[in-house]
Amino acid sequence: MTNVTLQAIAGDNNLILSPPSFALVKAMADEENELQETELSYDQKKEIAKWFLLNAPAGEINYVAKDLKEVLSDEEVYNEAAMEAFPVYNKSHMICLEMPSRAGDVIISSYSEITENEYLDPRTAQVAIVDHVKQICTKVRPAYDEELPSSYIEEFRSALDAEIQRYVSESYPKGVSTVNCTKGKDADGPGMDFELVVIITARKLSPQNFCNGSWRSVWNIDFQDESQVLDIKGKVQVGAHYFEEGNVELDAKKEFQDSTIFQSADDCAIAIANIIRHHETEYLGALEVAYSKLPDNTFKDLRRKLPVTRTLFPWQNTLQFSLTREVEKELGLGNSRNGAFGLKIHLKSNVQQTSIYKRQKKNECINRASLQVISNVLTSVKDVRPKGTRDSSSFRSSDKQPFL
């Protein structure tokens, strides 16, 4: 092997670099071969792509898919990952698609799923056939009799659907709702249990302003004929994403449980709607209070309370006295031999502390702005102003209450 030296001049010193030994070159080559051998397999690439798609914030999966397609540079891997991820994402986010010919809107959820691409809209008694990747409804067909609930169940379902629609129109600027029967849809009269599911979804998408938000709530109502009780379980999920000069994401979840008495279809509908209204409004109010306190409590605790010197810098008096004279007096430097050197060090420390303080203040302003945007998104998704609740005459008696 030819003896070669590389010489680099740095100031007055010469740096001599010897060529790598044969053993080192061989070790580097072996490591490179191992890296090539450990390249991700087809299935690993697909699973990673699915993870990115499934974890996209509300309304942003298409942006993620576009970038992911360019990164993968493999059409087959992307298409298979998209075919598996989009249906799961659409159902979990309960997206709403408009049916052709303005026949109505259908919410994509596991509660309305008939087949992988067919979803029932019980309000119009139609089945929407959807393209999950394009997120569009391609066509509709009339629902078959076996896909619809019995006339007895439909009486309770339609009454509850009307009350929920009224509540959503009052409280959600862009909200959509549906009521599905998930159990006992063939019941033909009293004496049988059945279950209805209320789905409410609303989204506020504003990518041009770097913020998106969504509201999803699912309420399972179990009609128990023997005990004459309605067992109500609910789950609310709120998401907001703000990504201007940073990345702030909110993912809040809350579960509820309540009950009321089994009554007529209209009275049950009013009682259930009042319970849902009460819990959702109370929860959103609690969220707003919690996030309004973050800047003054949580973020304040995260910041360093004192600089490295453990003494507060008198920012309010910086224009009223000479910084050099006050520092000399405070350090007791005077005309001592080491006064200039000590002053130089102390002033350098103060400059660094000033830079740190300004940077912390800037971050705090960004955090405050992010929280304000999230609060605005939440307010636009769900209006929390008190709304009047409708009451049923059956609740005026002392033995029947809308809440148990």
TrEMBL record:
GO function terms (MF aspect): actin binding
Coiled-coil regions listed: none
GO CC terms in record: F-actin capping protein complex
Transmembrane segments: none
PROSITE patterns, per database record: F_ACTIN_CAPPING_A_1, F_ACTIN_CAPPING_A_2
GO biological process terms held by the UniProt record: barbed-end actin filament capping
Keyword annotations: Actin capping, Actin-binding
Region of interest called Disordered, as start-end residue ranges on this chain: 385-404
Family, per entry: Belongs to the F-actin-capping protein alpha subunit family.
Name used for this protein in its record: F-actin-capping protein subunit alpha
Organism: Brassica campestris (Field mustard)
